[in-house]
Specification:
One of its GO terms (molecular function) is hydrolase activity. This is Alpha/beta hydrolase. Keywords: Hydrolase. It comes from Streptomyces lancefieldiae. The chain is of the alpha/beta class. The chain has one domain: Rossmann fold. Helices cover 45% and strands 16% of the residues. α2 crosses α3, α4 runs antiparallel to α5 and α5 crosses α6. The longest helix has 23 residues.
Amino acid sequence: MRSDVFETDGARLYHEVRGSGPPLLMISGAGGDAGYYSGVAEELADAFTVITYDRRGNSRSTGRCAEPMDLAQQAADARRLIESVAGGRALVFGNSGGAIIGLTLAALHPQVLTGLVAHEPPAVNVLPEGDPERGFFSNMAALYAESGAPAAGRRFARTTRGEGTYRWPDDLWERFLGNQDHLFGTEGPGFAAFHPDEAALKAAPFPIVLGAGACDRGAYYARPSAEIARRIGVPWAEFPGIHMEFLRDPATFAAALRALATQMLSREGQVPTEWVNGHTPGAEHAHGSREHRG
């Protein structure tokens, strides 16, 4: 793993790069931390150049301010990372708020994407009129204003299936706690106001797949994925597990993402050169390592 800091528009973005092959940028949601994807990135590093980062204002990145989060700025950060670190184009995976940022990136900067996987974007504004879950973010904002970040964090965790059933890495948990005020006070309004640009997404010159976890059927943060897929006429895929299965069971989640990402890139004509040119040095050793892991 190689880590570095990238300077962009008033912020220094901490990022990590693993592996080699077609670039895969992974965008985090609430808490904006690269550490959510560490396990998945290690699993996929044999086939992809996996780029993860702490989003602006979160964890080891700078740029925190009192103004509400601007999704266009978040998309611009991702674009500049792709241009600087990924050679100009990348397949993008985003979970939760990261999926919202990915959809914004696809609409505003389509030239830097080879594809997009948007996993469980909590785009509550696409839910039917009168659906009580459309008010999730406004309810969270009211709770945060009244009782502060710890109360909002507990409520947030209770609404996310599977949380509390596994242990987060200690360093990730510590950084997340430091990001809570930024999440609920600054980032929440941006996610709450999101409406997908359906015309731009329909016109995207690359494959887009929406998806959600098998354990999240009916959840407010999973239901919008199917509705957005229907509206823009793209495939929808069921992933294994819960909202953050990539943290609970990175090997299982990576296997699903590997298959989908490989198919998407192959359709774009971007078959990894190792498969085109033949034998890859060290393949026997890698195969032995996988067998040893079981």
